[in-house]
Amino acid sequence: MLKSYLAFISFVLLPWCLVAQDFAFGSITPEDNKLVKNDLDSFSNAAVLNEYGKAYMAYNDTRGYTELIVDYHVRIKLFNRDGYRYADIELPTYRDESGGRTDALLEIKAVTINIVDGRIVSIPLDKARIYKENVSKYVTHTKFTFPDLQDGSIIEYSYRLVSPYIFNFKTWQFQDDIPKINSQFEAIIPGMYTYNVTLRGPYKLTTQDAKLDRGAFRIAGRDIDCSHMTYGMQHIPAFVSEDYMTAASNFKSAIYFELSDVYRLNGANLKITKEWRNVDRELATDASFGSQMKRDNVFKSLLPEILKGAADDLGKAKALYRYIQQHIKWNRYLGKYSENGIKEALEERSGNIGDINLALIAGLSAAGLDAEAVILSTRDNGLVNDVHPVLTNFNYVVAKVNIGDSYYLLDATDPLLPFGLLPLHCINGKARVINLKKPSYWIALTSSQKSIVRYTLMAELFPNGMLKGRLLIQSLGYAAHRKRRELAEYTTVEEYMEHRNEQLIGFDMLAGEIDGREDVDVPLTERYEVEMKLYDSLASETVFFNPFFLNRIGKNPFNLDERTYPVDIGAVREDRVVMTIKLPHGYVLKSKPDDSNLTLEDNGGRYVTQTQLVGDTFSFSQLLTLNHTTYPPESYFALKELFGRIIRQEKIDVMLSKTNGK
């Protein structure tokens, strides 16, 4: 079972401690040279030989605030060409909205080390090959690629990061997607700052020591003692990502620091870790959050037209939801705060997540509906801390409208989302509901609809081996949303069919129509005329064909020997196939795949198949259900075995034989 525990580290002087130190740059060891791929595992194409980091603080008299300084040094061995991607380095730096406070990367040093004819050859990185890329107005990536790579190259780099953002100190990732032989981190924290320190992940520290550094931090002419912590892990397995998971950061072994208190020089205590009542007040009065929620006046002149024909509160909510979906296009920026204000977003027809969904909340309120904001963390951003409020954990906001005894969670940023359905990237643990008049509270984020796909094939198999018929595909819930997003890439049904025919092998869509492409509140229904060449002819007395050509799984999504984190599929899944095929006269069913009825414990899922021949009519049905949105690591092998048996079943053909050889 995945172990995740909270370690509140007390900074005390231990009677003994390990002296941590950086390793010499460019000085590789015989062990570094000898290490080969299979020494660690059978699948990693690179490995971290050594990694060291140190984070400490210094007061910047010129700028007038304390800065965090992080020194980082790593040595990596590339076993083969597939490992070369670890030689493409991307270092993010951040800046605030004003641009006044920004991270700075200094002293970047990098070298490629090769063994040529038994000699060590070092090729330093040309500084001219380091460049910057502005990802957004808040984030810049510094990038470089190591030169002269070959199988067995050792790459090494170091840098210093100077940052004004001391709240989260420095997260140290012990575990990565390649194995590490040694990883060590030092944190030197002035006594005037108190951090909550959290160790996440399945692996324990091999080193955890502390000492006191007298007078190591100087501010306003005073020397402040520092707690000097050393954390280390050795022989850390690679973290292997797999399908159906939330952010890898939820499960990798890592140390997290969160600032809780600052003790000022005058003796006052500034409590950084706040109560939710403090956060509620802060959000309610924030110009980019609560103030935008209150701007119902923006909608006063718009409401008569928007609500025309709305018979009740639910109709009003749906009308406002559709209006925002159609009138503000998402500019691809996340954020729980409004970027430019909801009035400008409506006028410019563009905005970030905060602009769009805070505008929806204001509109719902203007219509007299009970609307609240819901702040959350997306699946790739990690889970939120529900012990105490950490606003930086939240990167997204949606609307909550309460109607009668029900409520609906709404995200108007995607015009293809039906009313009441959150995108799967928002289904991630808990979220906090912010009400401008009442205390905030937690709600669980769960999928409100299933992901359902139903295939129905009515066809006839002709003596020349050609199967012709009509295929009906119905998609509901999340499956319909995925299909609509796919269809949005094509201007016509014919263009989509042409693309699908390029992907299908031996299966052609000849003509088709799609209903529900624009009306997202109804199932998506596809109807196609199809044909498929099953074999050359039925001249022989015995013929074979495989009935698993619709919705074939083909590949097991679960392949790990061990998975230490949950399987999170986001929404309950149901896939159903029903086919009825009229055969040429005079054939009997000689052999077929065994009928299946496989189940997971605790009603976790089911796989059922049935194959039969009645007269000249061949029928086949298949049902796969996954009834839980999340499965614990203990259920992993059952899921792996279920999909393994499905794939083995898919390889078995139906055998038909002529009656009396005629």
TrEMBL record:
InterPro entries: Papain-like_cys_pep_sf, Transglutaminase-like. Residues 301-388 form the Transglutaminase-like domain. It comes from the Bacteria. Residues 1-20 form the signal peptide. Gene3D superfamilies: 2.60.120.1130, 2.60.40.3140, 3.10.620.30. Coiled coil: none annotated. Keywords: Signal. The keyword Signal applies. This is Transglutaminase-like superfamily protein. It comes from Parapedobacter indicus. The lineage of its organism: Bacteria, Pseudomonadati, Bacteroidota, Sphingobacteriia, Sphingobacteriales.
